[in-house]
């Protein structure tokens, strides 16, 4: 785990005069599962494709297992990639699809057969080997696509939104399958998705990207609990974190929607009266009987989901807020409640978006 | 009891009625199809049957169109007396047509691939320029073509004629192949690059099978156009033994000393039709097949 699997040094990418990746530095530990997340157009797929060698690097260096691969062909980098659209060869049987890369590398027939057999056993597709991709279901095709990556025995697996084309149920089971695969094979995996659940459940390390820059890289827990800035705070978590306009009162206190409350922040460099953002996740808000440090809110709309309920509220100054409500007496639209959040779950962000500590 | 019996008889009655209705609809459908097929096949059948009439019978009015006094190959024999013999001219035509197909497919596959996948300056201008040549009637450039071929020492040569046919065929074929390559998802090509297939290997092992319907279309059109072309062959070829079938047919149709041998004409039409049918039947299954099913999504 300590040896470095993939190292990106000051990676830049321009299309014409437009720079889309602005100097990315990243170290990915060997054997770890790294997920790139971000809104569409943030450059996560481009970054993955540069690691794969499908997109030229304008500036910077890519190292895989200590080897500089920046200018190498995709097939010489020790990578394998699984595409969103599967990208199977439609005119070949599953067996030929799996074997194609090895044939191109002039691997011995016996070795090819053994590897195809092993991979199809891992993925439970041995009974499909003589079929064409057109005769397979979506889930089976994705397995074949993953199998095609496995037989290459790559140093690094690259996944480009591999589950986006599957239905919800299949997505969950394939997600578990990929996690199992990572545990069994132990290779470095880099995974691109815009689905937070996939990111949170699969990753050892999440890299949050925006506009071609890394906003934060850390374990799922770090990213969720200690977001580095307002963007990461809003992007990770569903429903997203409530970010409320607040005023710094000094001495670890802020005013939010007319209520005063304390925050676990020293407030160094903050001026009294300065505008800040107060952050609280919906799942951390709870309904109280009122008292100090709570925010009164009017429930506009209540969404009942069975195990939980989302309350869409409006604060005294008109700001919207979402709170998760798990148990207790039923709350209906139109009622007024008092919400609070534990001290250690209150977050504060400066006007520049940075997290304040 | 009576109720259930009645229900059953009602059911069988209605299902019988449904079956009869379906049978009627089906027979109408097939009868219409057969009628249309007969309408289109009749000219071919009449020509083919008439070509097997006796020599004397061939000069009579064409009713009934089939041989009345037994089958004979007289018409084919007399066709062979025109020009340098029907075998020679058939060979010329086949040579030119097949060479045209081979060259057209080779060039248009490479060009279509290039236009579809590579980025280079003036790409679209160049493409439009190639397509624009479709607007020039080829008769208008026959004279310059003749002069160019003469300068190259290729006049009165089947190779020269082939080059002219390929040139005329290319704009459509390049357009066709570009579209065929455009329809192949980029990811398949990228997956192949990761698998280690590069350049020509990528083209032949992965992409060619996927654009086969396009290639079949290009091949069919190239063959038919080269096989049937008359004017360029007449103008650019000058010696008797080099003529292609359409030129021979013109001579047969013109007749000798004012007398047209209609039997020979029918035999010639039959000889000219056959290869077109064969080529189409050979390639039509690729022409129809949707190979892309299951590639992506």
Task: Describe the 3D structure.
The complex is a heterodimer of chains A (357) and B (297). Chain A is an alpha+beta fold and 357 residues long. Chain A is 24% helix and 35% strand. Chain A contains eight helices and 21 strands. Chain A has helices at residues 44-52, 94-104, 109-122, 138-150, 168-185, 196-202, 220-225, 230-235, and strands at 4-15, 18-29, 33-37, 59-64, 67-68, 79-82, 156-160, 188-192, 205-210, 213-218, 242-250, 253-256, 259-262, 275-280, 285-288, 295-304, 309-315, 320-325, 336-341, 347-349, 355-356. Chain A has a six-stranded mixed beta sheet with strand order 6-7-8-3-9-10, with helices on both faces. Chain A has a six-stranded antiparallel beta sheet with strand order 13-12-11-14-20-21. Chain A is elongated, with a radius of gyration of 24 Å. Chain A starts with a strand and ends with a strand. Chain B is an all-alpha fold and 297 residues long. Chain B folds into two domains: 3-75; 81-296, MetI-like (MetI-like fold), CATH 1.10.3720. In chain B, 72% of the residues lie in helices and 0% in strands. Chain B is built from twelve helices and no strands. The longest helix of chain B is centred in the N-terminal third of the chain and has 49 residues, at 2-50. The radius of gyration of chain B is 27 Å and the shape is flat. Chain B starts with a helix and ends in a 9-residue tail after the last helix. The model of chain B is unreliable at 290-297 (pLDDT under 50). The interface between A and B is medium-sized, with 32 and 24 residues.
Layout of helices and strands, plus pairs?
The complex is a heterodimer of chains A (357) and B (297).
Chain A: E1 4-15, E2 18-29, E3 33-37, H1 44-52, E4 59-64, E5 67-68, E6 79-82, H2 94-104, H3 109-122, H4 138-150, E7 156-160, H5 168-185, E8 188-192, H6 196-202, E9 205-210, E10 213-218, H7 220-225, H8 230-235, E11 242-250, E12 253-256, E13 259-262, E14 275-280, E15 285-288, E16 295-304, E17 309-315, E18 320-325, E19 336-341, E20 347-349, E21 355-356
Parallel strand pairs in A: 3-8, 3-9, 6-7, 7-8
Antiparallel strand pairs in A: 1-2, 1-4, 4-5, 9-10, 11-12, 11-14, 12-13, 14-20, 15-19, 16-17, 16-19, 17-18, 20-21
Helix pairs in contact in A: 2-3, 2-4, 3-4
Chain B: H1 2-50, H2 74-79, H3 86-117, H4 123-132, H5 142-151, H6 158-182, H7 186-194, H8 199-210, H9 212-228, H10 231-236, H11 245-254, H12 262-288
Helix pairs in contact in B: 1-12, 3-6, 3-9, 4-6, 6-9, 9-12, 11-12
């Amino acid at each position: 785990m300590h040896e470095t699997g993939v190292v990106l040094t000051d990676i830049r990418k321009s299309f014409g005069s437009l720079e889309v990746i602005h100097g990315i530095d990243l170290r990915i530990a060997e054997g770890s599962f790294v997920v790139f997340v971000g809104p569409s157009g943030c450059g996560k797929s481009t970054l993955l494709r540069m690691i794969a060698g499908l997109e030229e690097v304008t500036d910077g260096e890519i190292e895989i297992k200590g080897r500089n691969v920046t200018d190498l062909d995709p097939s010489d980098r020790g990578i394998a990639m699984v595409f969103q659209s599967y990208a199977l060869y439609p005119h070949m049987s599953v067996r030929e699809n799996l074997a194609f890369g090895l044939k191109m590398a002039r691997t011995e027939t016996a070795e090819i057969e053994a590897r195809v057999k092993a991979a199809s056993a891992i993925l439970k597709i041995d009974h499909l080997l003589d079929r064409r991709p057109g005769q397979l279901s979506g889930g089976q095709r994705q397995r074949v696509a993953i199998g095609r990556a496995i037989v290459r025995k790559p140093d690094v697996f690259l996944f480009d939104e591999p589950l986006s084309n599957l239905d919800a149920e299949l997505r969950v089971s394939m997600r578990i399958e990929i996690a199992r695969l990572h545990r069994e094979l132990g290779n470095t995996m880099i995974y691109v998705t815009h689905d937070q659940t996939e990111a949170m459940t699969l990753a050892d390390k999440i890299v949050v990207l925006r506009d071609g820059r890394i906003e934060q890289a850390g374990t799922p827990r770090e990213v969720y609990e200690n977001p580095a800035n307002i963007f990461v705070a809003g992007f990770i978590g569903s429903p997203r974190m409530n970010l409320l306009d607040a005023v710094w009162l000094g001495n670890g206190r802020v005013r939010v929607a007319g209520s005063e409350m304390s925050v676990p922040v020293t407030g160094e460099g903050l001026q009294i009266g300065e505008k800040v953002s107060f952050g609280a996740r919906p799942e951390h808000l709870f309904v109280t009987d009122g008292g100090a440090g709570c925010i009164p809110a009017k429930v506009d709309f209540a969404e009942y989901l069975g195990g939980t309920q989302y309350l869409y509220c409006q604060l005294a100054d008109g700001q919207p807020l979402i709170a998760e409500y798990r148990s207790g007496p039923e709350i209906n639209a139109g009622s007024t409640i008092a919400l609070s959040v534990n001290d250690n779950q209150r977050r504060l962000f400066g006007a520049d978006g940075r997290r304040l500590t | 009891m009576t109720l259930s019996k009645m229900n059953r008889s009602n059911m069988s009655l209605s299902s019988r009625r449904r079956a009869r209705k379906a049978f009627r609809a089906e027979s109408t459908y097939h009868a219409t199809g057969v009628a249309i097929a007969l309408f289109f096949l009749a000219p071919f059948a009449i020509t083919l049957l008439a070509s097997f009439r006796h020599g004397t019978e061939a000069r009579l009015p064409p009713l009934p169109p089939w041989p009345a006094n037994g089958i004979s190959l007289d018409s084919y024999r007399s066709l062979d007396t025109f020009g340098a013999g029907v075998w020679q001219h058939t060979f010329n035509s086949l040579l030119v047509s097949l060479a045209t197909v081979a060259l057209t497919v080779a060039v248009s596959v490479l060009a279509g691939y290039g236009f579809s996948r590579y980025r280079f300056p003036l790409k679209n201008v160049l493409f439009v320029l190639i397509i624009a040549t479709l607007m020039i009637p080829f008769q208008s450039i026959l004279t310059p073509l003749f002069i160019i071929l003469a300068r190259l020492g290729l006049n009165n040569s089947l190779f020269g004629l082939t080059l002219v046919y390929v040139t005329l065929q290319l704009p459509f074929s390049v357009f066709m192949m570009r579209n065929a390559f455009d329809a192949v998802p980029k990811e398949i090509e990228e997956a192949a690059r990761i698998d280690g297939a590069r350049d020509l290997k990528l083209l032949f092992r992965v992409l060619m099978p996927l654009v086969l319907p396009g290639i079949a279309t290009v091949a069919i059109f190239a063959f038919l156009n080269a096989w049937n072309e008359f004017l360029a062959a007449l103008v650019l070829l000058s010696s008797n033994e080099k003529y292609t079938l359409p030129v021979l047919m013109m001579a047969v149709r013109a007749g000798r000393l004012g007398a047209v041998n209609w039997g020979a004409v029918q035999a010639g039409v039959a000889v000219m039709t056959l290869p077109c049918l064969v080529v189409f039947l050979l390639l039509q299954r690729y022409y129809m097949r949707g190979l892309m099913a299951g590639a992506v999504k």
